[in-house]
Protein 1
Amino acid sequence: MDRVYARLRADILDGVHPPGGRLGEAELAEQTGSSRTPVREALRRLEVEGLVEVLPHRGARVPDWTPEDLEEIYDLRMLLEGAAARRAATRIDPADVAAMEKLCDVIERCAEPGDGQDLDRVAELNADLHGIVRAAAASPRLVSMLNAVVQLPLVMRTFHRYSPDDLARSFAHHRELVVALRAADGTWAESVMRAHVLAAKAVLLRAAHRAADDENDRHDTTETRTP
């Protein structure tokens, strides 16, 4: 079952199953070389993580988020990750703070413009950095709630939507968060994390509204051309 779960999760994050795509148990069982039972269990785990939604009488699919969904998810993430940062500030091991600082270095190198830029790797390392904070918060309940909202940036390949200024702002937040955690200042760490998540929300909403406007323009053009 773990193998099937890992395969389906990777395929969703890699875009093999795009937003809105149907996830049929029979087809997935054939693709993964398994029976429908482990597929069904994998889909349930992915539903808890927010990577799959199960619709009554319609089966499972990859969520197709609206701007309203994004706003709600990021507002929840702001509250939860802010709380995690506050708790982590007085609990995190100095070695983990040092590891975060090294991740900042690698993230920034991967994001440098040019042929070597790897924004998918940036997303993975960013998830690792945030994961250190969540683990240091030492709150299984908080982590469980966060699991339903933290996968969205990976699915939507968020960093591909960032301008150079957006990237610089995000990385500055990372650096300041490290300093706040090293100072064991929970209020500071929470404030930085909340600003960090809100800035990410602004980027995604801007991109979502732009995509919606483009779609409306295409629709209007098609109607105009229809005799």
Protein 2
Amino acid sequence: MTAPDAGPQLPGEPASGGAPARSTGDPVDKLSVLGASWGWALGSALVTLATGIIVLVWPDETLHVLAVVIGLYLLVAGGFRFVAAFSRREHGERFLNLLAAVAFVLAGILCLRNPLQTITWLGLIVGLVWLVSGLLTAFSAIADKGLPHRGAIFCAGALGVVAGIVVLCLPTESVVVLTRLLGLWLILLGVAELVIAFAIRSALHGHHDTGPRLG
């Protein structure tokens, strides 16, 4: 008779009540530990926040500059999501998160391609990637009932869905309008990611505080 699933394992959490789990030499294990850390989530949040601020305060609001900034953000965010996907124990959830990471990277490449730099196309790319990744994130939060901070993750996913719908539906006939729209949503999404990062930190500290003590 097998023991019931105890839910997702946190970095450094004892595997079965014994010594803390350690990362082996397997690259997947190392990515799993790194992706589940609160510092990695914090880095992703800071990248999103910084991009939103840069987009809003950039003095020359040209389509080329906006496309480059957004393209680089999507590439970096895709990298963060790729590593974070390995923190998922279920292969189905890992695949969905990897899919979202690939969507970010592909969208970043499209934004950086000069022939595709039109206002409508740029808004379409960003809106679609936010919509798809938001749906995948919300679904992952619903499916994984053992996720300790699933409420915050679901809210972040829902915010991504709303951001994608707003960007896709609102008319963006000028670079200034698109810049303000993307900048504001990036800041809101960055704040949501910050909440998730500190929720992970709180969960990790709570586990260590309630763990076994010597003496």
